[in-house]
Design goal:
By secondary structure, the protein is of the alpha+beta class. It has three helices and seven strands. The protein has two domains: about 80 residues, Sandwich (ATP Synthase, domain 1), CATH 2.60.15.10; about 50 residues, no CATH class. β2 and β3 form a beta hairpin. The termini are far apart.
Length: about 150
Amino acid sequence: MPKYLRPFQCDILTPGGHRERIEALSVMFPASDGMVGVLGGRAPLVTTVGAGGLVVDPTGAGDQKRYFVAGGFARMCDDVLTILTEECCLIKDLDGEEAWRDIERARAMPMETDAQIARRDEMLHAAQMKFNLVQLRDGGPKSIDEIGEE
């Protein structure tokens, strides 16, 4: 095994409790300012978690684990990556119709104050990322017209 593929522990936590503990070779997750890739032995890191796909390559012959995450913080220290996120679910378990309803709910949120606008934008971005992941999982995008007719 190449030296750069050193195993490390990845803990994924949500407000509901411990979601996963995985021994990983690599992890990619969305930060608020772009994607972050992590390998074992990485320098310490603290960053905010954005909305999008979290991909974990476990050690051994296992398949990649793919999640949708939104909001929170990530910390890498002493070969332990801790991802504390507000929302986390396996991409295979996402419901496209529910993701679309999340987009509609976000679009209907009030926009009277700066705080309301910021919250609406955050919710809309997370809902759109969730919907995009469902579309990728299911083999490609549908048009907005097709989605509206269902």
